[in-house]
Amino acid sequence: MENTLKKSVSRPITVGREGLLLITLIILCIVFASQSEFFLSSRNLTTVLRNSVDLSVICAGMTIIIILGGIDVSVGGILAVSAVMIGRAYQYGMPDIIVIPIGLLTGAALGYGNGLLIAKTRVPPIVATLGSMYIFTATLFIVIGGVWISGLPNSLSFLVLGSFAGIPSGVFVIAVVYGGSWTILRRTPWGQRVVAIGCDEKSAQLAGISVVRTKIQAYALLGLFAGVAALLYVARLRNVEVNIGTNIALEAIAATILGGANIRGGVGSLLGALLGVIFIKITQNGLVLIGVSSLWETVVIGGLLIAVLAIDAFETRRTS
Amino acid sequence: MKDPLNQRMFFLTALLIAAGLLGAFLSPYFLQASTVTYLLQYVPVLGVLGMAQTLIILSGGPGIDLSIGATMSIVGLAIAGLAANGIPILLACAIGIGLGGMLGAVNGFLVCILHVPSLMATLATFFTYSGLALALTGGAPIGGIPEWFGSLAQGRFLGIPNHMWIVFLPLAVVLHVILSHTRLGSHIYAAGNDERAAFLSGVKVWHLRFALYCISGMVAALAAIMTISWFQAARADAGDGMELLSVTVAVLGGAHIFGGIGRLSGTILAVLIVTTLQVGLQLANVSQAWQLATIGILLIGSVITDNITEDHWRARVRKRSNQS
Hints:
heterodimer; A: 320 residues; mainly alpha; ABC transporter involved in vitamin B12 uptake, BtuC; 14 helices; 75% helix; globular; B: 324 residues; 13 helices
C-alpha cells in the first residue's frame, strides 16, 4: 500500500497514458485526413488551435482541482460571468488596462466563493458547484437579458488570432499557462500540498497542512484561469453569446480524465490534460469535416468519457 | 423534537408555509383554489424523480444519479417514436420502462461493478444520453400521441390531477412502505450508514445499489410517460435541469448527501416547497433566471444547514456520552 502510494506521488505522469493518447490522436488524424483533404491544411489546424485556447487554459486549472480531489462543474458559469463583465466594461468604454483586471478578478472572486463554500462548510464539491452553476447562469441571464453583447474592440485579439515568428500566438499562451501551472504544481510547496491533500486529506491535515486554505486557493486559481479564458474568448470572438460556456465544464473534465487524472484525486498530468484537449477539439473538428452533425459532439465525448472511465476501472482492478 | 429528522420535518413545514406566504405576497392570483390544482400538476414528475434520487443517495457510496433527467428525455422520445410508428401506446410505455431500466443498468454497471465514482459515471452518461436525445431528433419534438392518452396527466379526479392518483401516490406509498417497514428498506439504510458493517452483516451492498440505479431509470421512464401525456409530445430537452432539481429536493428534504440519513416524506415536502416557489414566482411574472437562482441558493443553503445541524447534533451526542 505504502509502496503504491509512494509510486503514485513521485511518478504521477504515466508515460503509458500520454503515449497511448498521442498514438490514438495520430491514428485519428490519419483517419480524418483520409476522409477530408481540408483537415490537414494549416488553415484548419490553426482554427482548431484557436478554438482550443480557452478550453486548454481552463483545463490546466481543472487538472489541479482534480488532483486536489475536487471537481468544479461551474467553470462554464465563471467563464460566462467573467466574459459578460469584460463585455460590459468594454461597452462602457474602459481601456484594456482596466478591463483585464476586471475579467481576472471576477473569475478569481467567483472561484474563491466556490472554494469558501466547499472548504469551510464541507459541502461536497459537486453539489456546491452544481448550485453555484445555476446561480452563475442566472446572473448571466439577468445581466445579459437574452441579448448578445457584440461589436467589442479587437485590441486583445492578437493573443489568439495573431502569430509571432510564424507560430500562432495561441501556442505561446498555452505554453505560458501550462509552464506556469506545471511549475506551481510540481516545483512549489503549494503544489506538494495539493497533491498531498488529493492523496489523503486526513493525513495531510494531520501533517499540518492547512487543507481549508489550500482548497480555497486552488478553486480561486481555477476561477482565475476561467477569467483568463474569458478574456481569450472575448478576444477571439469579440462578442458574448447567451449560451457561452455551457459545455466547457464537461469538456474540461473529460479532457483531464482522458489525460490520466484520477477522479479520486492525487494523480493527474498537465501534459495529458493538454493532449486530452487536443483530442477532443480534433474530434469535434474532424467530425464536422467528414459530415457528421455537430449535435453528435456531446455523444462522442460522453461515450469517450465512459470508455476511458471503464478502461481505468479495469486497469485499477488488474493492478490491485 | 430531539431527533434531527423530526426537526427537519418541522423546518420544512415552516419553509413550505413561508413559500406559500411569499407566493401570496408576490401575486394576487396565488391565493385561489385553482392554484392548488395548478401546483399539483407539476408535483408528480419532480416527485417521482426526487424519490428515486433519494433512494440512490440513501444507499450511500456516495451515490448520486445525474443522468436521471437525460434518461427521462431519451425514454420519452423512444416512447413517442414507437407510438408514432403505430405501436400501441401502452406497449410503447412498457418498452419505455424497460429501456429506462436498461439505461439505469448502464449506470449500475459503471458504478457497482466497475466501481467508477457515481458522480463521474452518471455525469458521463448524463452527457451521452442528453446528447443522444438531441442528436437523434435534431431538437424537433415528436408528436402523434393518441388523444385519449392525455387523460393521464390532463384529466382530474376530485380536483386532483389523474397522474397524482395513478402514478405518484401509489409509488410514494410503495416506496415508503419498502423503505420504513421492510428488511430491504433497512438494508438500504444500512448500506448508506456503514458500507463495510452492512457488507459484513450479509447485506449485498453493491447488488442493492445496482438495483436502485435500475429503479431510478424506470422511475425516470414513468416521469417521461407523465410528461408525454401532459404535453402530447416528447421533447429532447424534457428532462433538462431535472438532475439538479431532483438532487435539490432530496437534499433539502433531509437526505444526507453521503447516505444513510433521510426520509421520503422529507423529499415530498421539499418537492411541494420547490413547486410552490416556482409557481409563485411564475404567477408573479418573475423571470426564469431568478427561478434558477432561487433553486441554486436553496440547494446550497440546504446542504450548509444540513452540515451545521449535523455538527451540532454530533457535538451534543458527544457531550452527553462524556457526561455519562
